[in-house]
Design a protein that fits this description.
Elements (H helix, E strand, L loop, with lengths): L1 E4 L5 E3 L3 E3 L2 H6 L10 E10 L12 E6 L5 E8 L12 E7 L12 E4 L4
Parallel strand pairs: 3-4
Antiparallel strand pairs: 1-2, 1-8, 4-7, 5-6, 5-7
Length: 117
C-alpha cells in the first residue's frame, strides 16, 4: 500500500504493510530488521490508541490519523524501549516507520492507495 499526503502532493510511504488484526498490531515494528519498514495500523474504532516501543530495534516515526484521514499527531524519533506512549487525541489509524519519504505535519490529509483504509 502507498500513502500520499493530499495536502502537499508528496509521497509519504511508497510501500507499507497493513496491521488490522490484534496480533499484527501487537507485533508492529518489534524485532524488525528491515531499515525501511513501514506499517499502517487500522484500529477497530477511533479512540486513544497507546503504543509501546519495547523490543523495537531503533527510533521510528509515529503518525496518528483520524477517521477522516487528517493527521492528528506526529512523533519523530520515538525512542526504543519505552513502555507507554499515548496520543492526546483519538485516532483510527497509525503510521509507524523507520524511514518515511516525507513526514506529514499536523492537519495534513493522507490518502491510501492500493490497500485498506
Amino acid at each position: 500500500m502507498k500513502i500520499i499526503n493530499k495536502t502537499t502532493g508528496k509521497t509519504v510511504a511508497e510501500q507499507c504493510d497493513i496491521a488490522d488484526t490484534f496480533l499484527s498490531r501487537a507485533i508492529g515494528l518489534i524485532f524488525s530488521g528491515k531499515k525501511d519498514k513501514t506499517i499502517w495500523f487500522i484500529f477497530n474504532d477511533e479512540r486513544i490508541q497507546p503504543i509501546h516501543s519495547l523490543f523495537v530495534p531503533r527510533e521510528f516515526t509515529a503518525v496518528y490519523v483520524n477517521s477522516k484521514m487528517k493527521v492528528l499527531e506526529v512523533w519523530e524519533n520515538v525512542p526504543y524501549f519505552k513502555l507507554y506512549l499515548a496520543p492526546k487525541k483519538p485516532a483510527k489509524y497509525l503510521l509507524e516507520s523507520f524511514k518515511l519519504k516525507s513526514i506529514p505535519t499536523v492537519g495534513d490529509v493522507l490518502l491510501c492507495l492500493g490497500g485498506k483504509s
